[in-house]
Specification:
Layout: H1 2-19, H2 29-40, H3 46-53, H4 57-69, E1 73-77, E2 85-89, H5 91-101, H6 105-112, H7 118-140
Antiparallel strand pairs: 1-2
Helix pairs in contact: 2-5, 3-4
């Protein structure tokens, strides 16, 4: 199993390297991680960011401050508890996050999917769907 895990990691990084977007913005890996937390979790505040990326509240606050200045993130109030400040991605923040954490859709379509059979494309989608479902099980435990 150790060999299979190493192989998955190698394949994953190779796929991302070959199919990634060319980045235009200067942004830290930590900032991308914060933006992913904001996108993927519900009603995220500074405390949640600090816990998720395992830094102090003050450090998380400084990182978020820079994202606010770049206008990648904005603050709003919780609908459940209006005393709680919630972080959300702006449209620009969503675009930046997409370019720094997703595969380039044009490369996927024109360089990869167009050259595959329907069965090959479905096989890839099925495998990624299964991997995502199992990853959700891990995250929820």
């Amino acid at each position: 199993m150790v060999k299979e895990i190493a192989q998955i990691n190698q394949l994953w990084t190779d796929i991302y390297y070959q199919l990634r977007y060319n980045h235009k913005e200067k942004i830290t890996h930590q900032s991308i991680r914060i933006m992913q937390v904001i996108q993927k979790e519900n009603e995220v505040g500074i405390k949640d960011i600090a816990q998720e990326i395992q830094v102090s509240h003050n450090t998380a606050s400084e990182h978020v401050k820079r994202l606010l200045e770049k206008e990648y993130v904005f603050k709003t109030r919780s609908k459940v508890d209006e005393r709680k400040v919630i972080l959300k991605l702006t449209d620009e923040g969503t675009s930046v996050l997409h370019r720094h954490s997703s595969l380039d859709e044009e490369k996927l379509e024109h360089l990869l999917f167009e050259k595959m059979t329907d069965e090959e494309r479905q096989s890839i989608l099925d495998a990624f769907t299964l991997l995502k479902e199992r990853a959700e099980d891990v995250h929820n435990n």
